[in-house]
Amino acid sequence: MNKRKRDQQEVVEGIGMGPDMLWQTPAIPPHPHDYVFRNGIRYVKPYYFEFIAHVKNRWAGKTIVDLFAQEFKGRPYEYYVNAVKCGRIQVDGEKVPVSYIVKSSQKISHFVHRHEPPVMACEVPILQKELDVLTVCKPASVPVHPCGQYRKNTVVGILEAEHGLAPVFPVHRLDRLVSGLLILARSASKADIFRQQIEGGLVRKKYIARVVGEFPEDELRDSAKGKTASTKFTRICSNGAQSIVLCEPITGRTHQIRVHLKHSGHPIANDMLYISDETVDRWSRGSSADRSACTPDNALTSSIDEKVVNDGEENSNVGFSIDPMCTNCPNLAPKGYDTDEEGLWLHCFQYSGPDWTYECPYPDWAKLSQKT
């Protein structure tokens, strides 16, 4: 047995766990059994994972414990002391003392019991499957690709786990809380073609939003002051209290549509980041999004009722071992994440380029009831 394997065995045996514990890396693909469905929420069973980083210049000269305590504040100082002592934190594949001073460019491994944030329990419906292109309807609350604490609870992860589709290359972004059309290339070269067209201004994007108030009938263009971003808005329908609006970004920035709608006086009706208390009182009291309004159109999804477990508590462990060092156990979700999160009433329904167009059906919330 080589030294690295011996060290890893000491890590697991030092906390009373068997030497057959599997440390996952990004190379290990997601599997359908990795997910737990409860009360409309998709959880990921916690798993052991090796996070790898290299010492930045500004980290150099710090003790290994101080580095983690100052740069990664999600866990208490005592956790990092114990993690270093038992080898869950290593430098260049070796166990080190808590007083160890790190040097620039050294490889740091942190072996953690990883708890991913939950997302809404929606399928990822495949809309079109071509030789080199895949289009899907991204559910709200699900990130597009691995980022931050999300890895398996992403569109890319779910497609690999539940459809065996990998690798795929997202060609454009959709914010986590936004739903709708997502184009994925089946090769890096095809993704580059799409991205060149997007960067060259050859691609048109269309979204719909459900906004506060009676949006003007006339076409409206809005640009945030001092920002190189512009969006064209056209009212589709209104019941007086809320409106469905076509949104066409002309030039793009993060959160651009949400910012411009707020600037117009008609923010997205359940966008708590940009809506004011005054607006809620005036237009939207009692009409915030609920989970049923955020699910995709029934025609887009197959039922997942058979996979949903409604008995038991969300915080109880299902099919995974409690880790005595883990700061999130026995919960399925990591601390600080809200399982009652709602999807945003903003939906991408069309992308079109020089010789192609892809579309996604409207969600249920795009149907307005008459004002009462």
TrEMBL record:
Signal peptide: none annotated. It holds the Pfam family PseudoU_synth_2. It catalyses: a uridine in RNA = a pseudouridine in RNA. SUPFAM superfamilies: Pseudouridine synthase. It comes from the Eukaryota. InterPro entries: PsdUridine_synth_cat_dom_sf, PsdUridine_synth_RluA-like_CS, PsdUridine_synth_RsuA/RluA, RluA_PseudoU_synthase. Residues 132-263 form the Pseudouridine synthase RsuA/RluA-like domain. Keywords: RNA-binding. This is Pseudouridine synthase RsuA/RluA-like domain-containing protein. It comes from Stylosanthes scabra. The lineage of its organism: Eukaryota, Viridiplantae, Streptophyta, Embryophyta, Tracheophyta.
